[in-house]
């Protein structure tokens, strides 16, 4: 099976991410699509396993196989966690709905460490831009501020909200380069400090609920295997009837 066929035929959940999901889209914004596909269980019985992720088939489209997606979400990967909270869902199956119903099981105070590490890496890139070019890439600065806000609010409330709401215009001012770099730096530092302060008192559990996720994944794999077995029985039954002159 071609990798893109897995996306086309076996996607259980897909959504729009990026600026459009964050409430920061402008006329020139791309449409970033992310999704989760469930590779048929029999494909795992071969030496060559299904891919853990697939680019395409559309532009700006990226999908994860369900198990890989769950692994990354359990590690509190920011990009993956945010996919589960997109307000712009384009496609969802029964399995996808069950995945969405488990959103809270992935959330834990581990998000502070992973979001902070990701933010630190992005901040270093911005600092390098300032040293090299005299200014950061303002769009990246805007998105880093948004991520820091999301992390702080998650730790404070226990809920992950990715739409920026009424903070849209101040963030777009950063994107347009209308806020000085020292002001942006101060804003980033303040958000990081607020997240640090919120972490010890967060309503989030210390660890994600790995058992619930593993149970969900097991049932999804089992259902896929049974479906494949049933389909094979139907095909073989038709062949037998034709051979016997009954069909």
Describe, in short, the structure shown.
The chain is of the alpha+beta class. The protein is built from eleven helices and five strands.
Explain the overall architecture:
The chain has 247 residues and is of the alpha+beta class. It is built from 11 helices and 5 strands, in the order H-E-H-E-E-E-H-H-E-H-H-H-H-H-H-H. It has helices at residues 3-10, 19-22, 66-74, 78-83, 94-101, 103-106, 110-133, 138-157, 168-175, 181-198, 210-243, and strands at residues 11-17, 32-37, 53-55, 61-65, 89-92. A 5-stranded mixed sheet has the order 3-4-2-1-5. Helix 7 packs antiparallel against helix 8 (138-157), helix 8 (138-157) runs antiparallel to helix 9 and helix 8 packs parallel to helix 10 (181-198). The longest helix has 34 residues, at 210-243. The chain is globular, with a radius of gyration of 22 Å. InterPro entries: RlaP. It comes from Streptomyces atriruber. This is Nucleotidyltransferase domain-containing protein.
Defining traits:
single chain, 247 residues, alpha+beta, five-stranded mixed sheet, 11 helices, 5 strands
Per-chain topology:
Blueprint: H1 3-10, E1 11-17, H2 19-22, E2 32-37, E3 53-55, E4 61-65, H3 66-74, H4 78-83, E5 89-92, H5 94-101, H6 103-106, H7 110-133, H8 138-157, H9 168-175, H10 181-198, H11 210-243
Parallel strand pairs: 2-4
Antiparallel strand pairs: 1-2, 1-5, 3-4
| Rough outline | globular
Widest sheet: strand ordering:
3-4-2-1-5
- Share of residues in helices: 55-70%
Largest sheet: 5 strands, mixed
